[in-house]
Specification:
Helix content is 34%, strand content 20%. By secondary structure, the protein is α/β, with parallel strands linked by helices. Helix 2 packs across helix 4 and helix 5 packs parallel to helix 9. The protein is globular, with a radius of gyration of 17 Å. This is Dioxygenase.
């Protein structure tokens, strides 16, 4: 049975490992914990497209059998630089992804050294704390071309029939410089557009709307750099004709912003 595809807002830094941040992220945590229940079975593997891995001109795919940790955050408690998420990698799945992307004419290279960044291990830890589901990461291209990443998602789509869970991990709002000064209004305005584009618009119009995302209200205030939005393009491409549902929506998320996560599924 074909698995759904997700775009998740992964929250701020290593929040699940900081008791003081857990309460303010309770709704986000509940939405992530619910994903395994929604699936009804444990997937063979997770393919995580994280906003925190960018490459130039070629997509990277992790092929380390035991990926190390990448603590790509700053200013957090010392314990957050010691956490481990020992989910195994999957060189076999990495090879399958290489095959799919190459067949679609998309350049791809296996990275046998890279580990898990926090855009991957933080949500994976909340979803599968036992670290018993293999996971690989796929990079985004630093040119941030929406059409390219929609095509990337289309190339990955067959994995849904192979029991691989595709997750785009970013944030529906990501402007850290303005998060405490106008972030609440900008995030709410952009989120309203996002809800309309994904939920209220016909699926055949969704890709075109996302390619023109900069015309949305407060688009550049919400995403001065669209690194955290691009994983959504991949998710939509992988589930191009499927309905969307909002699985997490909070108007007073961390720092008072509006944040959302989405599921794409034929049965949605």
């Amino acid at each position: 049975m074909k698995l759904p595809v997700y775009f998740i807002s992964h929250g701020g830094g290593p929040w699940p490992y900081i008791p003081a941040m857990q309460a303010s992220n309770a709704a986000l945590a509940a939405s992530l914990v619910d994903i395994p229940a929604q699936l009804g079975r444990k997937p063979k593997a997770i393919l995580m497209v994280s906003a925190h891995w960018e490459t130039h001109g070629v997509f990277g795919i992790t092929a380390h059998p035991r990926p190390p940790m990448i603590y790509d955050y700053y200013g957090f408690p010392e314990n957050t630089y010691q956490v481990q998420y020992p989910a195994p990698g999957s060189p076999e799945l990495a090879g399958r992804v290489q095959q799919l992307l190459s067949s679609a004419g998309l350049p791809v290279v296996a990275d046998t050294q890279r580990g898990y960044d926090h855009g991957a291990f933080v949500p994976a830890f909340v979803m599968y704390p036992q670290a018993d589901v293999p996971m690989i990461q796929l990079s985004i291209d630093a040119g941030y071309d929406p059409a390219l990443h929609l095509s990337l998602g289309r190339a990955l789509s067959p994995l849904r029939d192979e029991d691989v869970l595709i997750i785009g991990s970013g944030l529906s709002y990501h402007n850290l410089r303005q998060i405490y000064g106008g972030g609440a209004a900008a995030s709410a305005q952009f989120d309203a557009w996002l809800q309309h584009a994904l939920l209220a618009s016909p699926t055949q119009q969704r890709a075109a709307l996302l390619q023109n995302w900069e015309t949305a209200a407060s688009a550049r205030l919400a995403h001065p750099r669209e690194d955290h939005l691009i994983p959504l393009m991949v998710a939509v491409g992988a589930a191009e004709h499927d309905k969307a549902s909002c699985i997490y929506h909070e108007s007073q998320a961390f720092a008072g912003i509006t944040a959302s996560s989405f599921r794409f599924d034929a049965a949605a």
